[in-house]
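Your task
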Amino acid sequence: MLKQNKRDDRNGDGMSDQWEQQKSLDPDRDSANQLMANGYTEIKVYLHRRAETPINGPWDRGTIALAID
């Protein structure tokens, strides 16, 4: 699990201040449960986008092929 530094999330709502600023949200206000026009909460969209971001580290060995019987 990725940990977020507290100084990167001043209000502690789970979304980085940078993300909130990019989305025109107030980084000092907890907006995690704010509903967007598409019906999803801000935190749900934030977490979905983080899951899409590739994470490269020393454990990254490339693509894993799965065989299904």
